Amino acid sequence: MSTFTDPYASSRETTEGTVFSVTGGDWDSLITEIGATKEERVVVNMGPQHPSTHGVLRLVLELEGETVKELRCGIGYLHTGIEKNAEFRSWTQGVTFVTRMDYLAPLFNETAYCLGVEKLLGITNDVPERASAIRVMMMEFNRISSHMVALGTGALELGALTPMIFCFREREKVLDIFELISGLRMNMAYIRPGGVAQDLPAGALSKIRETVKELRRDFKDNEKLLIGNTIWMKRTEGIGYLDLAGCTTLGITGPVLRSTGMPWDLRKTEPYSGYENYDFDVITANTSDVYGRFLIRMGELEQSLRIIEQCVAKLETLEGAPVMVADKKIAWPSQLAIGGDGMGNSLEHIRDIMGESMESLIHHFKLVTEGFRVPAGQVYSAVESPRGELGVHLVSDGATKPYRLHFREPSFNNLQATSAMCEGSLIADIIGAVASIDPVMGGVDR
Amino acid sequence: MSDHGMFGVPGTGDTSGFGGLVRTVANPGSSERPFGSYFDEVADDLERAYPDFAEAIERVVVDRGELTLYVKREKLVDVALVLRDKLLFEMCLGVNGVHYPADTNRELHAVYPLLSMTNNRRIRLEVCVPDSDPHIPSLVEVWAGNNWNERETFDMFGIIFDGHPGLTRILMPDDWRGHPQRKDYPLGGIPVEYKGATVPPPDERRSYR
């Protein structure tokens, strides 16, 4: 029991032993007290509010000195019931929900969901080429912005402040592109079943080309700063080891799997949205550690830029082509226009339905309020998100709403590897290992 | 299953013509050979490697380019081991529940998407159990990564995975009552008053069917 009162560190007795509550600034008194208990093993709760646990992730550590003997994750703090909510909204409205799951990779959630809906509808091959090229381009930009957060926060958590500044500078440029094209920087609901919400605005392609050039130049700052940096290597090399057998049995995908030397990337193995037409490499490493995953993410940035350049070239040849399926029973009735405050109404469309054609108004009303029907059945569609295989299991009962929607989130599965990666290591190495998994709690908890 | 009308109100004065429509919804039924694609090969290989095939697999459905094997729960672990070791489905991408209240004595379905990285193939296993006896053997021994997924399915649907090392809630709080993603679990929400009128929670609103 406490021999003196400290307003920040109280202790109480439980059946499991003494429990200390620590709120910061009182480590000296805590150490004095723990020293008095003569316990060798200490259970420490790290999180859910901890600056280096990537959002509301709780890690329960059993420590002996500084060595982690056992580690368990506590998740669920960010559960929002998106899957359940989507069962009460039309198939098109579902995009607005799923984009909020993994909030660092919204366009991947949207694409995976839309590919699933299109597969259920049997219109996978009817999606216009221009729409697919825009999807690919937006996804690759999104991969860059997501990797920027992974690298920046990962470095910050290991004590390197400057890379974070560089990464967020680059990310800002990508978000500017998103704002230019979709009107929103995050959670765009831009990719819709059958195509995309609206065509690229005038001048977008030249702006993109400029940005690609800037990004390629600026990525070098981080490369110079971190690759081969002695301190960085000491914190990352040999840390968070997980080999191929561990990855397959735990269902781990993405950079963690590729860091074992396995060149598994759904963009190559099961191409979707026309990825088979783009020239790019799958980056792997053979170290199975945090440094390898870091190198993979760095390498993927350049590959994404390569794909974006090919998309831009392709989109130039497809100027004026449709960006939504031709089937008027599925296609959203209006193409939206971008206003000063984001996505807005298309005045031309409003003139048509309000002033000229009663049938258009009825059609618009039916499709927007009721939505389209999707034939009964179930599908699984997967895309390669920045974190691995993002799968969507969709079940339809023939109605205008999903019967069941389930996301197989790579963050959720990959986070299971934390115990395997960290048990037996030092506390300080947990931070690096978790950062290399790059979990996004919005995706884990959904 | 058939629906009458667009809304939940029968016998209205709807003159649009939609009110009289009867819509029949048909789920994809069992498939006959040839299944097409690599599915025949998978079925043949499984039959060869697993003599109890006819008894363990209730039906085979090929729909929208995907193969689904409906497996009896007693045989699930055996089939999974053969699929992993002989047919090289190294990865299980989790398990997901679906609740079909109208499917009598098979209300709860567990769906396992499998991936073979060696052959670049995907199949799906589906296990159906009654609501009154929601037990399915755990596959954590076969694919360790199913641990959290089974906990999630238990949390959301109340399917009990026998043999799971620690089947507790994972997303909902430990003391939560009920299993939120079942169809008989209300969406919740509170009626919102706006300018004197009340907006009911989403699942109680008038909606299209």
Automatic annotation (TrEMBL), chain A:
InterPro entries: NADH_Q_OxRdtase_suD, NADH_UbQ_OxRdtase_49kDa_CS, NDH1_su_D/H, NiFe-Hase_large. This is Unannotated protein. Residues 158-446 form the NADH-quinone oxidoreductase subunit D domain. Pfam families: Complex1_49kDa (PF00346). It comes from freshwater metagenome. Belongs to the complex I 49 kDa subunit family. GO terms for molecular function: NAD binding; oxidoreductase activity, acting on NAD(P)H; quinone binding. Keywords: NAD, Translocase, Transport. The keyword Transport applies. The keyword Transport applies.
From TrEMBL, chain B:
GO terms for molecular function: NADH dehydrogenase (ubiquinone) activity; oxidoreductase activity, acting on NAD(P)H. The keyword Transit peptide does not apply. Residues 190-209 are annotated as: Disordered. The keyword Transport applies. Residues 69-189 form the NADH:ubiquinone oxidoreductase 30kDa subunit domain. InterPro entries: NADH_DH_suC (IPR010218), NADH_quin_OxRdtase_su_C/D-like (IPR037232), NADH_UbQ_OxRdtase_30kDa_su (IPR001268). Keywords: Transport. PANTHER family: NADH DEHYDROGENASE [UBIQUINONE] IRON-SULFUR PROTEIN 3, MITOCHONDRIAL, NADH DEHYDROGENASE UBIQUINONE IRON-SULFUR PROTEIN 3. Belongs to the complex I 30 kDa subunit family. This is Unannotated protein.
